[in-house]
Design brief:
The structure is a single chain. By secondary structure, the protein is mostly helical. It is built from six helices and no strands. Helix 1 crosses helix 6 (about 100-115). The mean pLDDT is about 80.
């Protein structure tokens, strides 16, 4: 990351903090509740994170009756999801926007909206 990019992000973060102070607290809240509590501060330990995730999935499957719990991956598309929900399959392609590049392209717009509108 270039020094100019680091400065730009710092300026945006400070502007968001002034305009939307509650949102500016999000990183601290995420660290306290997810990174520290859920993952024991080991968010960079891939094996540990996957173990926590798999344990959570097993607990959910053991708790929720199978007829009330859709086990679904987005790669399956509309059909199994719509069947579970009792809804018709839409005539449009299944959205596939959960990609890192797409997420990063949206970030400047989110920051700008927070700076301008405070929400």
């Amino acid at each position: 990351m270039t020094l100019d990019r680091v400065r730009e992000q710092g300026t945006a973060s400070r502007s968001v903090a002034r305009r939307a102070p509650d949102f500016a607290l999000y990183p601290r809240m995420a660290r306290a509740t997810v990174m520290d509590r859920l993952f024991d501060g080991r968010i960079d330990d891939r094996e540990h994170v996957l173990e926590v995730f798999e344990r959570h999935i097993a607990e959910v499957k053991a708790t929720i009756p199978a007829d009330r719990l859709p086990v679904f991956t987005v790669r399956q598309g509309w059909e199994p999801l719509c069947a579970f929900l009792g809804r018709p399959v839409p005539d449009e392609p299944f959205p596939q926007v959960n990609e890192r590049a797409a997420f990063r392209r949206k970030r400047p717009r989110r920051q700008l909206r927070l700076i301008l509108h405070g929400r």
